[in-house]
Amino acid sequence: xxxxxxxxxxxxxxxxxxxxxxxxxxxxxxxxxxxxxxxxxxxxxxxxxxxxxxxxxxxxxxxxxxxxxxxxxxxxxxxxxxxxxxxxxxxxxxxxxxxxxxxxxxxxxxxxxxxxxxxxxxxxxxxxxxxxxxxxxxxxxxxxxxxxxxxxxxxxxxxxxxxxxxxxxxxxxxxxxxxxxxxxxxxxxxxxxxxxxxxxxxxxxxxxxxxxxxxxxxxxxxxxxxxxxxxxxxx
Amino acid sequence: xxxxxxxxxxxxxxxxxxxxxxxxxxxxxxxxxxxxxxxxxxxxxxxxxxxxxxxxxxxxxxxxxxxxxxxxxxxxxxxxxxxxxxxxxxxxxxxxxxxxxxxxxxxxxxxxxxxxxxxxxxxxxxxxxxxxxxxxxxxxxxxxxxxxxxxxxxxxxxxxxxxxxxxxxxxxxxxxxxxxxxxxxxxxxxxxxxxxxxxxxxxxxxxxxxxxxxxxxxxxxxxxxxxxxxxxxxx
Lengths: 235, 235
Known about the structure:
The complex is a heterodimer. Chain A is mainly β.
């Protein structure tokens, strides 16, 4: 047992500001200690070996670096009672996805205009042109939902459209693989607007990426994505 | 600094391994005490009267039995900041659901092949032939969602297909009841594949079962379910 564990007074503290938290000497605290900051309504947990991995979150307040110069970091567990590791993003205007018959293609392979509508841009960054979402936080379990209103703008031939959620490109662009375990569903579209939804329960780690994928099983008709939203909700 | 802070410190203990937690004498701790294990990044809560009811979870990452031989058990509350009581299952190959006009029938009533793609298999036990998911964890509130792609395989007649998530068979097979209060949704399909999505917020108790119920309100055309995913997200 760590000698520090035997001192209960060190295990959970309250502070009135992040400055007070930063000035706390982390070397005298055990790994995993918690502190609640009244000013920001945030519960932090100490990771004494975090190093610089999450320092891109320092300005957001999700991570606090102690003034003692160690590798320790205070990482937000909850803010106002909820996990801060949430995200939503949308497309601002219709965008085409160029399809090759029966192959998976990425939303964003043709440049569009995407923007974040919820969450912290420090935790989830989004490419404004491709919609690619990149996670920058500690490991968390999340439910990822991607919804899109789409049609095949070219002809009246019914097409069978597959959709899925790709984690780090694991729904491989250009492949014809079935990805049932990655939230794949299908819908037949006959030149009318249709809603498709793909969903995956995932463990996200620092650097992971998310993207919506489409596959036109029937032919090479491109599709128009007129509305799109991605939400990431913590489990 | 608030003088009450010193008392807050008594609420949480820290350990460096599960072995250390198991050796902790639970008889000297209050019911509901919490311990954070740095090694597994898990927050545990003590239930001193749990007994053996959840012992099927021993050996998973969700339950730990103290060495003191009492009825007490440690339940995982959070792992890496997330609730571990989540699950996702999916359909491996196309399944048929035999319909009687306007009556509810369960996906899986004709055996098919289902598999797990996320979550603890001890807490959520999947019947791989019927898709029935049985929960074996402590009481939790969860958002249960199903995304599925289906069509009426027999004819081109437009049929109205209703879907609903059944909790412990509270959507009763063979009945024609309206289950709007249980998240029932409907789509119309005419021999083309359509996606349908249903959700319910519910309390999961030990033994609660989950499955998808379908109803063809138009005729007795059987349904072909080509894609399906059931996800359980803790709230």
